[in-house]
């Protein structure tokens, strides 16, 4: 469909032909990020608008719909923002977003209504619960939605609106020991539950991701995005018996990015430019498993703990590989403050990497995971939940509650939500009646049992729409659909961590100077 008389340049937008999940043709709008001229033809690197970047690809001219070509708008020259050189003028998308935010703020001011205080004592909040209660008038609305905005005035004139500070704690679900009854369709498996004081949820499902931290081996930092890092630079990676198609940019050496295949040693993760170099390297490489201590083994599954300071080369190579499949993270070469836990599968040839997670040796914010990744050949087989479960088993041994570092990727958020859901429902459904009375459990007790941070427990219950407000009391309702869905999910979950197979002694890193 490409018209040879019209030159397509970077920044143009037009529909591009692609196959969807049902293998049907569709024409989503895409932006041209780069143009590459080959002998006799051109290739265009496109990003599909509103699609994940891992779907970006090189396409041929016949897949472009030239009839709906949109040229980039010329932007007027404006002074650099904040006086900083290199700042770019606002794009149409950002301008639209700003307008939408201003409208949203204005509508929030006009729609603010006072909210009565929530009950705080356990005696006031005890209640019976009816099965499958879904009356919208009793559902919990986060307090943040009703929080009035503060107006900043200077010399009597209103300057701007300031939303409530995100760091301040807000009360959303009553006191620490507030009781909430749990009914499960009149079955014997019912309980009462206490809700702690509401705090800002750390789940990024509210649409406003938490502010990224500027520490960590892989942390979000969009300020340095440019056309280079927006494009995949590696075509294919051969890792053991698998060939992987990278999803995102990774800062491998420039001379390796033009190769049709990048070869990695699957044991030390060293990158090589040819199969012959790899074969020569394997004759010298003595590793048949990741460096570090094996702290878990059950069946063919093993976990190795790797110190980012003692095994710096391996840790950096692992980060380079992980960056191929993690978009929202930026690579840092300072691996000293981190521990890496690599999950492997064992066979007669050695221990083959399946996935990994990293964590800070010392975390002031109770993070028990910095980055987490299951390699594509092993995805959708339960290994992601196994990595998550293992991270919480380590937290149990350490006697702490933990939470993953935010923001989570799209796939990471799905995995964590699924794990939290199954873990919490498993506890609620296994509670036994005590002397004919419904057993009682608090959010804090759930958090202590699972090592899941209480904010994640609350956000999961709210995400599942289990918390309701009924006759002055908070209730949890487990409908038949939720119970049956949970039982089906647990039947499919064959891989579990056995705490008896874990041989792990936590270290007090605060006493070790520079580790």
From TrEMBL:
The keyword Transcription regulation applies. Pfam families: MOZ_SAS (PF01853), Tudor-knot (PF11717), zf-MYST (PF17772). Its EC number is 2.3.1.48. It comes from the Eukaryota. SMART domains: CHROMO. This is Histone acetyltransferase KAT5. It is an enzyme of class 2 (transferase). Residues 229-506 form the MYST-type HAT domain. It is found in: Nucleus. Residues 69-175, 195-219 are annotated as: Disordered. GO terms for biological process: cellular response to oxygen-containing compound; double-strand break repair via homologous recombination; positive regulation of DNA-templated transcription. Belongs to the MYST (SAS/MOZ) family. GO terms for cellular component: NuA4 histone acetyltransferase complex; nuclear lumen. It catalyses: (S)-lactoyl-CoA + L-lysyl-[protein] = N(6)-[(S)-lactoyl]-L-lysyl-[protein] + CoA + H(+); 2-hydroxyisobutanoyl-CoA + L-lysyl-[protein] = N(6)-(2-hydroxyisobutanoyl)-L-lysyl-[protein] + CoA + H(+); (2E)-butenoyl-CoA + L-lysyl-[protein] = N(6)-(2E)-butenoyl-L-lysyl-[protein] + CoA + H(+); L-lysyl-[histone] + acetyl-CoA = N(6)-acetyl-L-lysyl-[histone] + CoA + H(+). Residues 69-78, 91-101 have a biased composition (Basic and acidic residues). One of its GO terms (molecular function) is chromatin binding. Its main location: nucleus. InterPro entries: Acyl_CoA_acyltransferase, Chromo-like_dom_sf, Chromo/chromo_shadow_dom, HAT_MYST-type, MYST_HAT, Tudor-knot, WH-like_DNA-bd_sf, Zf-MYST. Keywords: Acetylation, Acyltransferase, DNA damage, DNA repair, Metal-binding, Nucleus, Transcription, Transcription regulation, Transferase, Zinc, Zinc-finger.
């Amino acid at each position: 469909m490409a018209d040879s008389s019209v030159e397509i340049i970077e920044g143009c937008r037009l529909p591009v032909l692609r196959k969807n999940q049902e293998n049907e043709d569709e024409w989503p709008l895409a932006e041209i990020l780069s143009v590459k001229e080959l002998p006799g033809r051109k290739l265009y690197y496109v990003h599909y608008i509103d699609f994940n970047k891992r779907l970006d690809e090189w396409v041929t001219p016949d897949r472009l719909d030239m009839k709906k070509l949109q040229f980039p708008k010329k932007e007027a020259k404006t002074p650099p923002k904040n006086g900083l050189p290199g700042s770019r003028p606002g794009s149409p998308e950002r301008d639209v977003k700003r307008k939408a935010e201003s409208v949203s703020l204005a509508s929030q001011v006009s729609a603010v209504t006072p909210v009565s205080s929530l009950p705080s004592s356990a005696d006031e909040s005890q209640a019976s619960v009816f099965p499958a209660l879904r009356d919208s008038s009793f559902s919990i609305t986060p307090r943040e939605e009703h929080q009035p905005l503060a107006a900043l005035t200077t010399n009597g004139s209103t300057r701007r609106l300031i939303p409530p500070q995100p760091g301040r704690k807000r009360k959303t679900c009553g006191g620490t020991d507030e009781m909430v009854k749990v009914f499960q369709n009149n079955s014997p498996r019912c309980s009462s539950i206490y809700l702690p004081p509401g705090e800002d949820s750390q789940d990024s499902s509210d649409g406003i991701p938490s502010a990224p931290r500027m520490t960590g081996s892989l942390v979000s930092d969009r300020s340095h995005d440019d056309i280079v890092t927006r494009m995949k630079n590696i075509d294919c990676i051969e890792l053991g018996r698998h060939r992987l198609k990278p999803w995102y940019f990774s800062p491998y050496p420039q001379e390796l990015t033009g190769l049709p295949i990048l070869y990695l040693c699957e044991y030390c993760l060293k990158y090589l430019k040819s199969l012959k170099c790899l074969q020569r390297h394997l004759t010298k490489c003595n590793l048949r498993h990741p460096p570090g201590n094996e702290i878990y083994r059950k069946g063919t599954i093993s976990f190795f703990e790797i110190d980012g300071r003692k095994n710096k080369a391996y840790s950096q190579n692992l980060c380079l590989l992980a960056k191929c499949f993690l978009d929202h993270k930026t690579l840092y070469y300072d691996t000293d403050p981190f521990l890496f836990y690599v999950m492997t599968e064992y066979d007669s040839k050695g221990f083959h990497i399946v996935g990994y997670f990293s964590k800070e040796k010392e975390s002031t914010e109770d993070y028990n995971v910095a980055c987490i990744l299951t390699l594509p050949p092993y995805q959708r087989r339960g290994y992601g939940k196994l990595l998550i479960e293992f991270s919480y088993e380590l937290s149990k041994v350490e006697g702490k509650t933990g939470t993953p570092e935010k923001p989570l990727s799209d796939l990471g958020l799905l995995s964590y939500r699924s794990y939290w859901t199954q873990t919490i429902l498993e506890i609620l459904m296994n509670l036994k009646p005590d002397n004919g009375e419904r057993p009682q459990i608090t959010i804090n007790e759930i958090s202590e049992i699972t090592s899941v941070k209480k904010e994640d427990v609350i956000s999961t219950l709210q995400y599942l729409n289990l918390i309701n407000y009924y006759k002055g009391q908070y209730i949890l309702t487990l409908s038949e659909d939720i119970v049956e869905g949970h039982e089906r999910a647990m039947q499919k979950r064959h891989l579990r961590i056995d705490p008896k197979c874990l041989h792990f002694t936590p270290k007090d890193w605060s006493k070790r100077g520079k580790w």
